[in-house]
Amino acid sequence: MIPKYKLRDGNEIPAIGLGSWQLKGDHCINAVKLALEIGYRHIDTAEIYENEKEIGIAINNFPRDEIFITSKVSGNHLKFNNVIKSCELSLRNLNTNYLDLYLIHWPNPFVSLRETFKAMKKLHDDGKIISFGVSNFDLNLLKKALEIEEIPICVNQVEFHPFFYQKDLLEFCKKHNIILVAYSPLARGKINENKIIKEIARKYEKTPAQISLRWIIQKGAIPIPKASTKEHLKENINVFNWSISKEDEMKIDNIKKFNLISFAFKILNFLVK
Ligand SMILES: NC(=O)c1ccc[n+]([C@@H]2O[C@H](COP(=O)([O-])OP(=O)(O)OC[C@H]3O[C@@H](n4cnc5c(N)ncnc54)[C@H](OP(=O)(O)O)[C@@H]3O)[C@@H](O)[C@H]2O)c1
């Protein structure tokens, strides 16, 4: 059984999810079905990933209330009517009546947060989304957003892995009871190449991917690794009944930083009203 965290609005979210960016077609259907068989109960998608129909097919025979589905509205669809349309299309594609979590995928300096928040409230009031959150919001933008939220911002989904430990943002999120969901938790596979991570992995008889995911979990964040092979899917979920010592956790904290996402998000954050 995968543990769950309580969100700010009282709902619950499983402590690990399956990322689905770049999973397409039958490959996507098979990976999601396999993940559900293995025990995953939290799937992360977005309108821009163009795989919601396939995920809808993969979850079709599963009790809906046992699966947590996150989707995201693209940053270029943040006007009131566009948010509503995007959500309705995601619901049709996923063949479901509601999303467990709906995120603003990235901020847009040309649409006010207030306008998007009103649309999210409407979707929430209509029962189309259960919880609401944001993605790619930095500390300053998150502060701004909290001042004007209409319904609780429960999650901030951001890049977070041993090469990009966003400590200040994490601490801010914790203080405000916002869950940090960690995307690219394996640094898109680069985790396998790091000497310190590899050494720690050998010590615990785990893989570098498991060390990265366990480190994220120990930070109190939720990793959403993307995987498509049975071996990777199994490995990635097997991160709950063991732990890394405080000393080794600190070695990982101090790994030299770099991030994968471009400078563009920083500029977008700065410009949003
Ligand atoms: N909100 C946003 O703006 C945003 C941005 C980026 C990503 N995301 C979300 O976060 C999810 C994860 O991030 P990501 O897809 O960028 O990268 P990631 O999860 O860090 O890495 C995925 C890569 O790692 C490989 N992998 C998976 N498990 C492994 C294991 N145990 N050992 C070795 N390699 C392994 C995968 O290969 P195989 O496929 O061959 O298994 C794939 O090539 C995305 O799928 C998406 O849902 C959100």
UniProtKB/TrEMBL annotation:
Listed A to Z, the keywords are: NADP, Oxidoreductase
User: MF terms per GO, please?
Assistant: oxidoreductase activity, acting on the CH-OH group of donors, NAD or NADP as acceptor
**Gene3D superfamilies to which the protein is assigned, alphabetical:** NADP-dependent oxidoreductase domain (3.20.20.100)
Stretches assigned to the NADP-dependent oxidoreductase domain: 16-255
Q: Does the keyword NADP apply?
A: yes
The UniProt family comment states:
Belongs to the aldo/keto reductase family.
The protein's name is Aldo/keto reductase
This protein's species is Thermoproteota archaeon
